[in-house]
């Protein structure tokens, strides 16, 4: 083989190598840009809570001990012994998982009362929810519409945001009943039912609005009626019947919503019936776009007490922690319990005594 032929063969070989490299590069780029491949990569990445839920980072999928904090909304019965000051009770407890069984013990000596002078028509300091947002604890008064920061060390509330009812133009206070975090935004919701005018006629839709709050305190009112009414339809409720929502949580791990109505009634509001017989027995699940609904039943359902707050166990978001409350005039009681995402009991409900606790949150062990 002469020199000219050898050079020609080499040039062909080099060209072929470049073609193979180019073709391989194109295939690699296409592969890396393939959503199916990217989704598999994301699935393999371990989930970590963002800064908005930094308080959950102390825990892990293997954690078996958790600290919780819960706050009271004792309505007009929240006056101290002098009948002059409105108090909110702040209590603590520990959750333990032993084998497959969960247990709860209250840290009685750690609890304290907080006084607040913010009132609306002689009522106030009725905290219906508590949540950790950007490493700070916030509580929400469903009578004044004020969101307060809780200072555990000094046992005080500091007013941080005041919200008006409905779309934000009302002269009455927003009634926050539930709170959850979606990515970097705090969602606050009201009951999701029609309001009655003074004459008892349905005439206002203010309770269908939610508030979306950012880290800097800026918030916007959003009409959430399509979600609430979808839930009514799923549960077979129509006017004058109603659902009253006080317990909602979003799973940032599984990208799903969970709504646990406190009350479900197929008849018009009646105080006695509402207090004793109308408690909710269902939890409604949606995907993050409020599609693909699924309804499951609470295996510990009791018609006299309904959901007032729910949270998901950090990094174990197939476990629901909840409070249920009973109220009939001045008779109040709260129960704590746990279930899985099929409604199966994971912890037998335990009474927290003669107070109406309506907000619970999981906090770091060292607080």
TrEMBL record:
The chain crosses the membrane at residues 12-32. The keyword Amino-acid biosynthesis does not apply. GO terms for biological process: proteoglycan biosynthetic process. Ca(2+) binds at residues 128-129, 177, 246, 308, 358. InterPro entries: Apyrase, Apyrase_sf. Pfam families: Apyrase. Coiled coil: none annotated. GO terms for molecular function: calcium ion binding; GDP phosphatase activity; UDP phosphatase activity. Its cofactor is Ca(2+). Keywords: Calcium, Hydrolase, Membrane, Metal-binding, Transmembrane, Transmembrane helix. PANTHER family: APYRASE (PTHR13023), SOLUBLE CALCIUM-ACTIVATED NUCLEOTIDASE 1 (PTHR13023:SF3). Belongs to the apyrase family. This is Apyrase, putative. It comes from Entamoeba histolytica.
């Amino acid at each position: 083989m002469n020199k000219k032929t050898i050079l020609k063969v080499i040039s062909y070989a080099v060209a072929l190598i470049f073609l193979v490299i180019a073709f391989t590069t194109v295939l690699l780029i296409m592969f890396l840009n393939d959503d199916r491949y990217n989704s598999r990569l994301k699935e393999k990445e371990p989930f970590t809570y963002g800064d908005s839920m930094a308080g959950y980072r102390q825990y892990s999928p293997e954690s078996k001990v958790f600290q919780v904090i819960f706050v009271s909304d004792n309505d007009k019965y929240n006056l101290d012994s002098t009948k002059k000051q409105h108090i909110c009770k702040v209590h603590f407890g520990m959750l333990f998982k032993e084998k497959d069984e969960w247990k709860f013990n209250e840290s009685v000596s750690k609890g304290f009362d907080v006084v607040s002078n913010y009132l609306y028509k002689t009522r106030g300091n009725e905290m219906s929810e508590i949540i950790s947002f950007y490493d700070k604890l916030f509580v929400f008064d469903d009578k004044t519409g004020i969101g307060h920061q809780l200072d555990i060390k000094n046992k005080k509330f500091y007013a941080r945001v005041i919200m008006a009812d409905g779309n934000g133009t009302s002269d009455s206070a927003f009634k926050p009943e539930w709170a959850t975090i979606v990515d970097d935004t705090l969602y606050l919701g009201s009951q999701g039912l029609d309001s009655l005018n003074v004459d008892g006629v349905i005439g206002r839709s203010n309770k269908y609005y939610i508030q979306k709050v950012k880290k800097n305190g800026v918030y916007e009112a959003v009409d959430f009626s399509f979600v609430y009414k979808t839930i009514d339809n799923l549960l077979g409720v129509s006017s004058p019947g109603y659902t009253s929502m006080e317990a909602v949580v979003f799973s940032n791990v599984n990208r799903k919503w969970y709504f646990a109505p406190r009350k479900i009634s197929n008849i018009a509001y009646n105080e006695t019936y509402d207090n004793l017989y109308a408690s909710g027995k269902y939890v409604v699940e949606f995907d993050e776009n409020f599609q693909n609904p699924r309804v499951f039943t609470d295996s510990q359902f009791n018609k006299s007490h309904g959901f007032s707050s729910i949270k998901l166990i950090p990094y174990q978001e197939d476990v629901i922690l909840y409070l249920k409350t009973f109220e009939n005039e001045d008779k109040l009681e709260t129960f704590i319990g746990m279930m899985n995402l099929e409604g199966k009991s994971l912890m037998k409900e335990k009474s927290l005594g003669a107070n109406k606790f309506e907000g619970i949150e999981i906090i770091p062990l060292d607080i």
